Amino acid sequence: MRHLKAFYVFHITAESSSYSQAAEKLHITHGAVSKQIKLLENHLSQILFYKQGRGMCLTQEGELLKRYTDIAFNTLDSGVKQLTRESHHYLEVSCEPTLTMRWLMPRLASFFQLTGIDVRLSTAGGPVKLAESGLSLAIRRDDFHIPPEYNKHNLVSEWAGPVFSPEYWCQIQQNWGDIVLLHSDSRPSAWSDWSQRSGHNFSTNKSKSFEHFYFCLQAAVDGLGGAIGSYPLIVDDLTSGRLVAPFGFIPSGHHYVLLSHTEKLVNNELSFFNWLEDTLSLCQPKTAKAAKPV
């Protein structure tokens, strides 16, 4: 490709909005940046920048070109990082915080023992920029718009239902009006969604709210009220007896998914996906229901 260096200089300059900052990042002179931009403008017969104050702003044509150079160089950078990860046998993975702490972390050692692949975790929820963040994969609940450039690999359907500590359940099951409903800012409609899908409702005005879903579930474990538990996030608590689910679970309409750059997973990514899918398949909820709330 002709003038590849000039395209890269343009890419860095467009991100910096400054010839001087681009020169520092590229370890070249201000004049060298200006020369490469002028070379590219002559090649394309388009003006790409105009001066505004001390900075440089993109023209309409420059904005259009930037969209394509972003895709090209971010994709190239992602490919190089993937090759590096493959040769060093590790993956950079983003995962939702509650799923990380309550399900994934306790099981990662078994994946490493099985494959020898080191999974380097970062936690975040919702939309993710894989290439810009240097990530291989992201594990998410599909409750947001997933851009078409990402491929979605279904892992497991989410099931939801009310959960309580055994002690708290014994206290309130004779008087539903005393129940405290636990909410979280990250899943504010969890109770209303469950009520709508199940056809049941608790007649109570008592509630507590927490910033994160993880805190909400931990509050249920600690006997502060009842929370809507999400499989597989509470499977270990149910197994150990820290929580009970007297009403069983119903499909929430959402799934946990693995997001990737490519449709076909290979090598380390494929190994991780297969392990996630197999391990999550063992986390199937019991759907039998007990007493009905009123």
UniProtKB/TrEMBL annotation:
Q: InterPro entries annotated for this entry? A: LysR-type_TF_proteobact-type (IPR058163), LysR_HTH_N (IPR000847), LysR_subst-bd (IPR005119), WH-like_DNA-bd_sf (IPR036388), WH_DNA-bd_sf (IPR036390)
Q: What keyword terms does UniProt attach to this protein? A: DNA-binding, Transcription, Transcription regulation
- What does the entry give for GO biological process? DNA-templated transcription
Protein's recorded name: Transcriptional activator of tryptophan biosynthesis TrpI
Identify the gene encoding this protein. Answer: trpI
Say which family it is in. Belongs to the LysR transcriptional regulatory family.
PROSITE patterns listed in its UniProt record:
HTH_LYSR (PS50931)
Boundaries of every HTH lysR-type domain copy: 1-59
For this protein, the parts annotated as crossing the membrane are none
